[in-house]
Amino acid sequence: MQLGRNRVEALTDGVFAVAMTLLVLDIKVPELEQSLSSAELPFRLLALWPKFLTYAISFVILGVYWVGHHMQLSFIRSADRPLLWINILFLLWVALVPFSTALLSEYTKHRLAIVVYGANLIAIGLTLALHWWYATSRRRHVDPDVDPGLVRTAMLRVLMGPLLYLLGIAISIFSTELSLALYALIPVLYILPGRLDVHWGMRGQEKSKRAEAKKI
Amino acid sequence: MQLGRNRVEALTDGVFAVAMTLLVLDIKVPELEQSLSSAELPFRLLALWPKFLTYAISFVILGVYWVGHHMQLSFIRSADRPLLWINILFLLWVALVPFSTALLSEYTKHRLAIVVYGANLIAIGLTLALHWWYATSRRRHVDPDVDPGLVRTAMLRVLMGPLLYLLGIAISIFSTELSLALYALIPVLYILPGRLDVHWGMRGQEKSKRAEAKKI
Amino acid sequence: MQLGRNRVEALTDGVFAVAMTLLVLDIKVPELEQSLSSAELPFRLLALWPKFLTYAISFVILGVYWVGHHMQLSFIRSADRPLLWINILFLLWVALVPFSTALLSEYTKHRLAIVVYGANLIAIGLTLALHWWYATSRRRHVDPDVDPGLVRTAMLRVLMGPLLYLLGIAISIFSTELSLALYALIPVLYILPGRLDVHWGMRGQEKSKRAEAKKI
Amino acid sequence: MQLGRNRVEALTDGVFAVAMTLLVLDIKVPELEQSLSSAELPFRLLALWPKFLTYAISFVILGVYWVGHHMQLSFIRSADRPLLWINILFLLWVALVPFSTALLSEYTKHRLAIVVYGANLIAIGLTLALHWWYATSRRRHVDPDVDPGLVRTAMLRVLMGPLLYLLGIAISIFSTELSLALYALIPVLYILPGRLDVHWGMRGQEKSKRAEAKKI
Question: Would you give per-residue pLDDT tens digits along chain B (216 residues)?
Fold first, then answer.
């Protein structure tokens, strides 16, 4: 079922591309009343800062989860119906992000918006963790000799997200600004290289060596 | 015309990805009047429940039909102009789903919205059945030795959808709530593994065995 | 530069998928004032018929041009900068279709809307013809031994579209309804199999025979 | 990590396709008040000219950057986490273009709109230059024997964009019309074939020769 994987990737990449690009629709061009002098425009653009901030936060965190999904699929060798459905559930949460981002950008100081946004990203993270658990438990859809250390490291890395977003929600009791700051920080943590890259990098090199060997 | 199949898949995956992600545009962030206290927001979000429900129903049922199309194409070996056009008709109905979903979410208690939504999904199901019938009748575009049991089982599975949506429309005479409940149930029925998976799974294994054999 | 073709296909399929699916955004759910009885909804939905009609016309004609582009690329063996740019110009017109469709659906009885819609589709058709001319003249990007009859037949078929849309624009002097009827008819003409399919089909069979031969 | 490149391409092509097609949403069908005669429509459509102009400018310049990214990836042999993240940053700026285009089309005579639009395209260009620099410095992700002349020529070509947009912003002190004219001119400069094509073309020919040789 290699074909299957190609199409799962195509749908996933499509939903991510559309969801990431739709985020921009939340940033609306300010309308100036005729009576106002054009000197008003800079202030109106500056007032859009929460829109730009949440656009960047959501774009990058969707990039993070896209990379995570990408990494998982690079280890998965086959697929069955439950795995397909876990993937569709994952995409259902991903496609909701433009809504929760618009909510957060409109109500940056309301705890509820912080909670809804965090909950959406926790749902994405947990579904991705379920995807990994289902594929790797009893080596169902990965190579039987896959490094158990890699399986564990990847799982911890995926679970880090939901934990941090839970923390972000908890912090909002004290300060919504602090929550927002944490939300902005989470993608950065994922961008930093981690222990997982060692596994991934090695595997990539091994693969290209094998490909090299084949050519000869 | 293998190339052809790749591009049909690309257009199909693209239309599905966009249609599924556009569903979120129907869930609009509530606008609070300045005079209202922020305590109003939770109630306004809760009032959006029909939007969230229909979003989930439509997202998952589109996922169902995407998996169904995916399964059909995995058996189809060639294509001709009529098959291409049946596929485009199929996509025409798929791309209408964001409209019929928005109608249903706005008028959950109107029979007409129930009927229009059901009719849209019946059209998708019947076109997918036509696609399968055209490809398999006289083994036009599938392997000549494809299991007739599989051809029949897949057809019954595709036709189950339109029948259930017809039932949903009929039930709306008595209760639109019951219709909505049935609509929410239909995707779940498709998610459960069926007799078809036996065929599909076996074929997948066979294929990977052949691929295995090729490598050696 | 095979890779190049893959990516040109990916961008093209993406723009077509998005443009075709965005058409649905023009069909807006009718808003009923609170005071109106729900019996009003059927009439409001029926009043949307020009939206549904133009949605279907545009969706299918975009399908026609997608198939045409698809057929051209299946003969093209290489690419250079001008070909890439003709393709991007082609996509520029394609992505405008949601606008000209919305204009036509809003002003079905205005000659200007008929003209703008027709002009948009003429631009698509002429750019596709330019694409074919550039690729095939002096056999620049196709096999040197490609059948000259096929090159001519394909060109005539592409040019049929702009001619028919020109006729549609001319007819609008007498009756916009007649123009609209012609616009609805044009995709149907393309769906009917033509002389081109003989070439294409033969080539497809040849290809699969070669593929067959390779396997043995 | 060949697989990785395929998926990076898929996400990139998806974001470009969606961003380019979303541009059309800024061109809204004019609404005529009932009282106005239909003779008003032509003037209302003509008044949309800044929307059409900025649509074309942005569509083509996105095409330019898509071709540029495409050319870079055709030389890149591997990927690592930083390269992936530079790519996502690149897409973040690309997906913002529908906003800055809408701003420019609404406020063509405001210097600020000229500055914001130019800044967005400078950001795209500089990120693409960073992508090339990271991939080629110390031959990190390209063939070790890649022609240094090509690396330099490609870099200069990428940097030409940001420089010209900077000039466009500077000119706006004197005349926003002149800036707009320069913005319209920049894509044309990129469409003209340059010294880079010699490298690219030669390489393409070499490749196809190798492929030829393989077949024999």
Answer: 344 677 788 899 999 999 999 999 999 999 877 655 677 888 899 999 999 999 999 999 999 899 889 889 888 887 788 888 899 999 999 999 999 999 999 999 899 999 999 999 999 999 999 999 999 988 778 888 888 888 998 899 999 999 999 999 999 999 999 999 999 999 888 877 665 555 554 444 444 444 444 444
B18: nearest CB among C21, C29, C74: C21
Give me the helices (H) in chain A, please. Answer: 2-22, 41-46, 49-75, 81-106, 111-136, 148-171, 176-191, 195-215
Among the listed residues C183, C22, C41, the one whose alpha carbon sits nearest the alpha carbon of residue B96: C22
Chain A residues in contact with chain B using a Cβ-Cβ cutoff of 8 Å:
1-4, 7, 10-11, 13-15, 17-19, 22, 25, 78, 80-82, 84-85, 88, 91-92, 95-96, 98-99, 102-103, 106-107, 110, 112-113, 116
Q: D30 with D48: CB under 8 angstroms? A: yes
Q: Report how far residue C15's alpha carbon sits from residue A17's, in angstroms, rounded to the nearest whole number.
A: 12
Q: What is the DSSP letter of A34?
A: T
Chain C residues closer than 8 Å to B3 by CB: 74
User: Other C-beta atoms within 10 Å of A125: how many?
Assistant: 25
Tokens 């911890």 found at: A156
**Least CA distance to C209: which residue of chain B?**
B1
Q: Could you count the other beta carbons within 10 Å of the beta carbon of residue B214?
A: 8
B98 interaction partners in chain C (CB closer than 8 Å): 21, 24-25
Q: How far is C86 from chain A (nearest CA, A)?
A: 25
Size of interface B-C (CB pairs under 8 A): 94
Instruction: Please state, in angstroms and rounded to a whole number, the distance separating the CA atoms of residues C191 and D75.
Output: 41
Whole-number Å distance between alpha carbons of A190 and A68: 10
Q: Is the dihedral of CA B99, B104, B110, B116 positive or negative?
A: positive
Nearest by Cα to A27 from A89, A92, A101, A81: A101
Burial of C49 (0-12, 13-18, 19+ CB in 10 A): exposed
CA distance D212 to C77: 13
Longest dimension (CA), chain A: 75
DSSP labels, C24-57: GGGSPPPPPPTTS-GGGHHHHHHTTHHHHHHHHH
SS3 B35: coil
Distance (Å) of CA D110 to CA A24, B174, D104, D106: 22, 60, 8, 9
Closest CA of chain A from C203, distance in Å? 25
Q: How many CB pairs under 8 A join A and B?
A: 94
C125-C131-C133-C136 Cα dihedral, nearest 10 degrees:
-140
Which residues, including other chains, have CB under 8 Å from residue A131's CB and lie 6 or more apart?
A69, A72, A83, A86, A87, A90
ipTM: 0.85
Distance in Å, alpha carbon of D10 to nearest chain A alpha carbon: 6
Predicted TM-score (pTM) of the model is 0.89
- The answer for residues whose C-beta is within 8 angstroms of residue A99's C-beta and 6 or more apart is B24, B27, B29
> Cβ neighbours of residue A87 under 8 Å, at least 6 residues apart?
A8, A12, A131
Distance of CA C11 to the CA centre of its chain: 16
